[in-house]
Amino acid sequence: MAFMNTSCNKPVLGVYAYTFLNAVEKHIYRQVAGIQSFEVVAFYKERLNADIFPMEQECGINPKRMPLHPQKLWHKYIGRQPSFVYRGYKDRMLAGLEEHKVDLLHIYFGHNAIQALPLIEDLQLPFVVSFHGKDASAFFNEPQYAAQMPRVFQKATLVFVRSNIMGQALVARGCPPEKIRVTYAGISLRQFVYHPRILPIGKEPVRFIQSCRLIPKKGLDTLIEAFHQVQQQSPNCSLEIIGAGPMEKALKQQIQQLGLQDKVFLRGYLETPALIDALQASHIFVHPSQTDPDGDQEGIPNAILEAMAMGLPVITTDHAGIPELITNGQNGVMVPERDVTALANAMLAMMRRPETWEPMSRVARKLVADRHDIHQQIRRLESYYYEALRIHLNAELMTGHTLGSVMPTKDPLPL
Q1: How far is the C-alpha of 345 from the C-alpha of 226, rounded, in Å?
Q2: Sheet holding 284-287: strands in order across?
């Protein structure tokens, strides 16, 4: 099945996620909504948050629900193997791709690609898969995931990762290195405005802040322990944690056990304007990412980029892709992950040396502007989309099949 969109001058990009989109996936929506060189159609099984993530074109794939065959029941619930696209779903998806004259498919998250294997093995279109964190780390501990991912690597035209170290991890898992492309996260520099920080005057506390999902790899338990040490030596400080997630109850218990109820505040999930206000009112950003017990790792956390863009001095860890962002002592401070004492010492040192805040934050803002501006990263992504189309077209020509040129006369970006 190879089809060409002839209704407009732009090729058509299909973006696929089984669930489109969870509230915490703003970074994906910013990317999808910012694409200019393609017509974009969202494909999904489940649609969430349409009010905050609207799409001009979308296609829900909802075949009539049928009772699961006993073999499929075993596959899903006893064998604990990844869910797959079954025939009815696959046929509806293929029909949707043809109806919208899609030229290239972008599958978000490795587990969605596993789930869609029956679809992509019949797909005549080029497709790319992007990995974001857990799908490039902890999920490989599941035998079926690890066993089936090489099929995805073999079929995919290109594979997108959020950091170089994530790309290296996928190559070690069998991805051909020539297929790897790094697509860094991007943020809006107009939205996250730079404002240098100064030490508060008088009795006003130094306000530490972290923004993240409340999950183990964010290092929240380590942060609270470290803050307890900081508070014992320098009581005039506070800690705000912005976000929601499954660790909320455990974190509240930890805060209570350490007697920090008047110092550490869980603010819950905030929409972007309220999050910006919270960051604006704070002095130091702390994000001590760590590998969780299941092996889950970060890419490069968007929250760190947002803090750097806004002029907050950043303290973080040498975890996963973060060393690609932070040069220790120049645009932030890094400590070993899970090292409570090292983290506490870094927080105390940052409090006691406010003269370093502005020079460090200016270097940080420049790096974000140079490498993580959302518009720059979207243009980079679009160039990779066109590269995938060229690779597929060349393969079609070599095998004697013609796809028809889906390329504009001139690429929007040279490669």
Answers
A1: 8
A2: 264-268, 237-242, 206-211, 284-287, 314-317, 333-335
Contacts within 8 Å (CB) and 24+ apart, 256-262: 258/224, 258/225, 258/228, 260/224, 260/227, 260/228, 260/231
Backbone angles phi, psi at 402, to 5 degrees: -105, 130
Reported as a pLDDT band with limits 50, 70 and 90, residue 185 is: confident
Q: For residue 295, is it left (φ>0), alpha (ψ between -120 and 50) or beta?
A: left
Please provide the size of the chain in residues. Answer: 415
Q: Is residue 406 part of a domain?
A: no
CA distance 122 to 105: 13
- The Cα–Cα gap between 392 and 398 comes to 10
Is residue 70 pLDDT above 80, yes or no? no
pTM of the model: 0.87
Q: Which amino acid is at 338?
A: R
355: phi then psi, degrees, rounded to nearest 5: -65, -15
Verify that 390 and 284 share a domain, yes or no.
no
Residue 81 has pLDDT above 60, yes or no: no
Residue 135 included in any domain: yes
Same domain, 182 and 293: no
| Residue 218 backbone phi and psi in degrees, to 5 | -80, -10
Cα gap 90→118, rounded to integer Å: 7
CA distances from 319 to 53, 196, 303 (A): 30, 26, 14
Residue-level pLDDT at 63: 56
The domain total for the chain is 2
For residue 6, give every residue at least 6 positions away whose Cβ sits within 8 Å of its Cβ, in sequence order, or none.
101
Q: What is the CATH number of the domain that holds 40?
A: 3.40.50.2000
Beta pairing partners, 13: 40, 104
Two structure tokens written together for 231 = 């508070």
Q: How confident is the model over 306-355, as pLDDT tens digits?
A: 999 999 999 999 999 999 999 999 999 999 999 999 999 999 999 999 99
Tokens representing 156? 């995919």
Q: Are residues 173 and 290 in the same domain?
A: no
Helix crossing, 302-309 with 272-280: angle to 10°? 50
State the Cα–Cα distance between residues 162 and 107, nearest whole angstrom. 15
Residues 26 and 155 in one domain: yes
Mean pLDDT over 97-102 rounds to 96
d(CA 215, CA 287): 12
Amino acid identity, position 200: P
What is the Cα–Cα distance from 312 to 332, expressed in whole angstroms? 9
